[in-house]
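Methods: holo model generation. Sequences were used as deposited, without trimming of termini or removal of tags, and paired with ligand SMILES retrieved from the corresponding compound records. Each pair was processed once, and we did not select among multiple samples. The sequence and zinc ion SMILES for this entry were:
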Amino acid sequence: MTTSCFCKVIQPAQGVPSADASQPSSPARRLPRSVGDGSKFWRAGQWLSIAFTDAPTQELQDAIEAIIWEWQPYINLYLAMSSVADAKIRISTRITENTSYIGTDALKVPAGEPTMSIGNKPGNPEFRAAVLHEFGHALGFEHEHQHPEANIPWNKPMVYRLYAEQYGHDKSAIDLNFFTPLNTKHLRSAPYDRKSIMHYPIENRLTNGEWEVKLNSDISEQDIEFARLIYPK
Ligand SMILES: [Zn+2]
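and the model returned the structure below.
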């Protein structure tokens, strides 16, 4: 059994702008390029409504909500539960995968359909990390292990083989979620952070030489800084 926490970022169809429809598009309101492409961040100060699409047990809802709310002190967004019809972030708990759209890409998802899946359940040692990580995507965070400065000495054949065997993921999904360096327009001003909640745990056997990252289960100091930067008070 591998420590995996594989999360699949979902990309919307090409050619559809992802800007929040409610966000003024004047250049002055866009964030500097050095910290990221502002088009996928929500407008600071707005409500970010959340709902579950598949009526999970109250216990599961409470567990997921409590973890999501750990982001609240660091962002100038107002998290609130709402009806599925009104929710911008719509969470499914039915499938076993953890997936999410990035930030305002969620607005491109047809009404009522999930924008995020939490496959892990409480009791799974990766549950907390998965919820914090997926909601990080919903806030616009991308994968830290794909930071252009990460320079991870991947054993790529091993990664392809393991994730195909264990999860049935094809090469393109693995390339997209592991190896593809983030586009320069998503560059963060922050240096590479191995403690980020957005970093996959990486077992030693998935790399060449002695290189690994343990499961990060908390929002890191640098995640907090970045959250405060993109959602300033
Ligand atoms: Zn992810």
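Residues 7, 9, 133, 137, 143 surround zinc ion (CB under 6 Å).
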